[in-house]
Structures are given as structure tokens and as C-alpha cells.
Design goal:
single chain; about 450 residues; Amino acid/polyamine transporter I; globular
């Protein structure tokens, strides 16, 4: 019997074991329920204390894109995600650049969580140095991914459940503290969404662009298309549901935190602002629990980030955009791309020991938003232009809105992010020009 993967010109080699629930958990695990902890203090300052509204804007932008991912996953239920969709729907060269941009994301996600996790762990246990924590976290993530996607999915389910429980407790503790007179002393307030004293549209858009960082990861669901039991039906639904559930969690955290600590200019450290909020609302116990959740998030995001990057490399290697023999090698028993996983482990460790968290966060948004634009454009080209589907709303208006929203957020990233990200794309252009003899040749699978 011919499989969906074989219909795309590939051999089915990965195990199909992931259900809709597994895919949703996978996406939320990559985003992590505790994601606001990474950006809360800095983005609250940028948005004048209206991070909750910035999250709403980011979620709407991501929902359009999640809808487009669903359409493309139905058309091409194969590993490679953004790279595969753009390559097959539009052009093999643009597909390479989309994959190159998203690869930057998948590289940086495990890298930044290694950094944040090691920092928090070192603060909690100063006797163990930062470098040691980086190696411990990297080892755990790599070993779990080595033994297969099913083990990773089960591990993520447990860790996301614990994290989710801590976030719920945090929300309840903050709400109780507010009712007892802390901060705004009321649970009903418009200030987390509209602050007349420190509000401007440009600040909000800048904050929304950075808030997209918390949503980077719902798209990782599509990299698991060849391991999903029913990819045509479940990939799109999982992407939208993960985006909605994750967005709701982020908005609630930003809302209650702003009520507990209204003056966003008085944090001792913007990098650990939500730790301070948790401490004010629930004392040392709540602060400790929240820190524990942040450390857990480094494992879940590290697992999914490393796994997705490995499968993106697998997809690019299979099309011979990267050396095929090396990047498509699978473990004979566990059917995991072990070389790719080990490469991502090494890159994560080196980056965690040498790079800056602020720059990494900005670069994540550069790669993610560029890839999202390509996917939205792919829906228009593939369905509306090539297949001549005439549902204007579904195949033209919605993806066009997704494209322009992502583009607007992308150009509002910092000049540093645009410059460094542009340099990364330039390296990709040079590499592609060399390997395709001046863009004259195509990957073999497309030639066939």
C-alpha cells in the first residue's frame, strides 16, 4: 500500500505514532506555558505595561499563519515543514531560504533554553557552575531524543503537565493577592491592555513583534508530519489549537502579573521580572515553584527544538540540499536522525557558552517571521494560483492577511536583529549559489 509520504516521492522511514493530543502537547511544549518569564520585564517596558495586548496581537498574527500551516500540511504531509511547503508550492530556491531562516530558529530555541535553564539552575544551586548546568541539560535533552520521538512525546506530556499546574497555581496565587489589596487591588482592569500614560501604537507593535517569540514553536508540529498517525487531518488542527491554548495562557499570565505589579519600571531585574512578581504574590515558595517551572521549560523546549531541527535537516538532506548520506542517516532501531540530533547538541552547547540572550531572542523572531511569511505565500501560490481553487476567503484573503501581519512585525524588529539575520541569509545565498551552480540545478527529488 502506497503511503502519503511515498506519494510525495519519498520513502516512509519514520515511525507514525503521534496522535492529535501528542501533536498539541508537542507544540505547547516547544512554546512552553512559562514563556512569558523569558520576556515579561523587557517587553512590559517597551509596551508601557500592556504586554497582554501585545500577546493578543501576536496570537492573532500566529492564528492566520497556523491556518496556512494546516493547509500546507494537508497538501504535503512530509517532514521539512516550512522548507518543504515553500519548495514544492513556490520555488526550490525560495524553499531553501525559508528552510535556512527557520533552521536559524530551530538552532536558537534549544540554545536559548540551555542558557536560561542553566542560569536559573545556577542561581538556585550556586555550587554547580553555569557551564556544568549547560552540559547537564544538553545531555538530558539529547539522550531522550536519541531514543525516539515516542519517548520524547511521553516525557513532554509529563513535563508540560507539571509546568501547566505551576502556571495555574501562579495565576490563582496572583489573583488572590490582588483581591487582598496587592497592586491594583482589583481583578477587573483595562490597564494590562490599555495604559493611557505610557501607550503608543509604535511601542505596541514593537512589543507584539517580540511577543511572537513566545509563539515560535507551534509550527514545529508540522515537522512531525511523517510521524503523525493522521497528518492531513491532525497537523492543521493541532497547530491552531496549540496557538490558541498557548496564547490564552500567555495573555492570562501577563494580565495578572500586571495587576500584581503595576509599575513595570521598578523591577530589580527585567530578566527575572516574573520571579519578582511570584515572590510578591506568594512568597519564597511561589517564587521557587515558578523558577522550577522555568527550568522544566528548558527541557521541554529543548526536546522539541532539537528534535524539530534534526528533522528539518533530515528533510533538506533527503532533497540533497545538504549532504544526503550524512543528514538522512537513521538509527537502525529507534529510527531517529541521530547525527542531526548530535549536531544540534554541539551547536546548543557552544552557543549557550558564547552568545547573548537578548540577541538570540531577536534572531529567533527574524527567522520565525520570515518562515511564516513564506508559508502564507505558499498557500496563495499553491491553492489559488496553481490549483485554481476559487475560495477567495480561504486561499487568498486569510493567508494574505497572515503574510502582511508577519511582514509588518518583521520589519519592526530591531536594526541589530535585521542586520545579523540578514547576514545569516547572505551566508545561505552564498552556500545555495555554490551547491546549485548559480541556482541552475534543482534538488534531485524535484527533478524527478
Amino acid at each position: 500500500m502506497t503511503t502519503q509520504t511515498e506519494n510525495m516521492g519519498y520513502k516512509q522511514e519514520l515511525k507514525r505514532v503521534l496522535t492529535l493530543k501528542d501533536l498539541i502537547i508537542y507544540g505547547i511544549a516547544f512554546m512552553t506555558p512559562i514563556a512569558p518569564a523569558y520576556i515579561y520585564g523587557n517587553v512590559s517596558a517597551i509596551t508601557g505595561g500592556t504586554l497582554a495586548l501585545a500577546y493578543v496581537i501576536a496570537m492573532v498574527a500566529m492564528l492566520f499563519t497556523a491556518y496556512s500551516y494546516g493547509h500546507m500540511a494537508a497538501a504535503f504531509p512530509i517532514a521539512g515543514s516550512t522548507y518543504s511547503y515553500t519548495q514544492r508550492a513556490i520555488n526550490h530556491n525560495l524553499g531553501f531560504f525559508a528552510g535556512w531562516a527557520m533552521f536559524l530558529d530551530y538552532v536558537l530555541v534549544p540554545l536559548i533554553v540551555f542558557m536560561v535553564g542553566a542560569s536559573y539552575a545556577n542561581a538556585a544551586v550556586p555550587g554547580v557552575p553555569y557551564v556544568a548546568w549547560v552540559f547537564v541539560i544538553a545531555a538530558v535533552v539529547t539522550i531522550v531524543n536519541y531514543f525516539g520521538v515516542q519517548l520524547a512525546a511521553r516525557t513532554n506530556l509529563i513535563l508540560v503537565g507539571i509546568m501547566g499546574a505551576i502556571v495555574v497555581i501562579f495565576l490563582i496565587v496572583c489573583a488572590y493577592a490582588v483581591t487582598q489589596g496587592t497592586g491594583e487591588a482589583t481583578l477587573i482592569s483595562s490597564k494590562p491592555f490599555i495604559n493611557p500614560e505610557g501607550f503608543s501604537a509604535s511601542m505596541l507593535i514593537a512589543g507584539g513583534a517580540i511577543a511572537c517569540f513566545s509563539f515560535l514553536g507551534f509550527d514545529s508540529i508540522t515537522t512531525m508530519a511523517e510521524e503523525a498517525v493522521n497528518p492531513k487531518k491532525d497537523i492543521g488542527r493541532a497547530a491552531i489549537l496549540a496557538c490558541l491554548i498557548g496564547g490564552g495562557i500567555f495573555i492570562l499570565q501577563a494580565y495578572v502579573a500586571q495587576l500584581v505589579w503595576p509599575d513595570y519600571t521598578t523591577f530589580e531585574s527585567a530578566d527575572t521580572a516574573l520571579f519578582e512578581v511570584a515572590q510578591l504574590a506568594g512568597g519564597a515558595v511561589m517564587a521557587g515553584a515558578y523558577t522550577f517551572a522555568v527550568i522544566l521549560s528548558t527541557l521541554t523546549a529543548g526536546l522539541t527544538g532539537q528534535s524539530s531541527a534534526a528533522r528539518l535537516l533530515f528533510g533538506m538532506g533527503r532533497d540533497e540540499v545538504l549532504p544526503k548520506k550524512f543528514f538522512t542517516h537513521l538509527h537502525p532501531k529507534y529510527k531517529t536522525p541521530v547525527y542531526n540530533i548530535l549536531i544540534m547538541c554541539v551547536i546548543g552547547i557552544i552557543g549557550a557558552l558564547t552568545m547573548n540572550i537578548a540577541l538570540v531572542t531577536e534572531l529567533l523572531n527574524f527567522g520565525g517571521l520570515f518562515g511564516f511569511m513564506c508559508v502564507n505565500l505558499s498557500v496563495i501560490v499553491y491553492y489559488f494560483i496553481r490549483k485554481k481553487e476559487r475560495n477567495v476567503f480561504q486561499y487568498l484573503i486569510l493567508p494574505a492577511l497572515g503574510f502582511f501581519i508577519c511582514f509588518y512585525l518583521w520589519i519592526n524588529l530591531s536594526s541589530t536583529a535585521l542586520m545579523v539575520g540578514g547576514s545569516w541569509m547572505l551566508v545561505g545565498i552564498i552556500y545555495a549559489a555554490i551547491t546549485t551552480k548559480g541556482f541552475k540545478t534543482k534538488p534531485p527529488i524535484l527533478s524527478e
